[in-house]
UniProtKB/TrEMBL annotation:
Ranges of compositional bias, category Basic and acidic residues: 46-63
Keywords assigned: 3Fe-4S, Electron transport, Iron, Iron-sulfur, Metal-binding, Transport
Disordered: annotated segments: 43-63
Gene3D superfamilies on file: 3.30.70.20
Annotated protein name in UniProt: Ferredoxin
Amino acid sequence: MKVRVDPGICQGHTLCAMNAPELFALRDEDGHAYAIDEDVPQEQEGAAREAVRSCPERAIDLS
Ligand code: SF4
């Protein structure tokens, strides 16, 4: 499973990083989220799905 954040859509709500702190962090420059590693470990897949559900901007893509 791969995870990506669209930086053009992300508004920096931080909800993804609160739900899945091992998967997402926020950039100091603009406060937008990014995937720490696009390859999601199997044990983090539930957290990744929860982050997708939590994002009000639908900025997170799982594939
Ligand atoms: S919850 Fe969505 S909009 Fe908010 S920081 Fe995370 S990816 Fe960006």
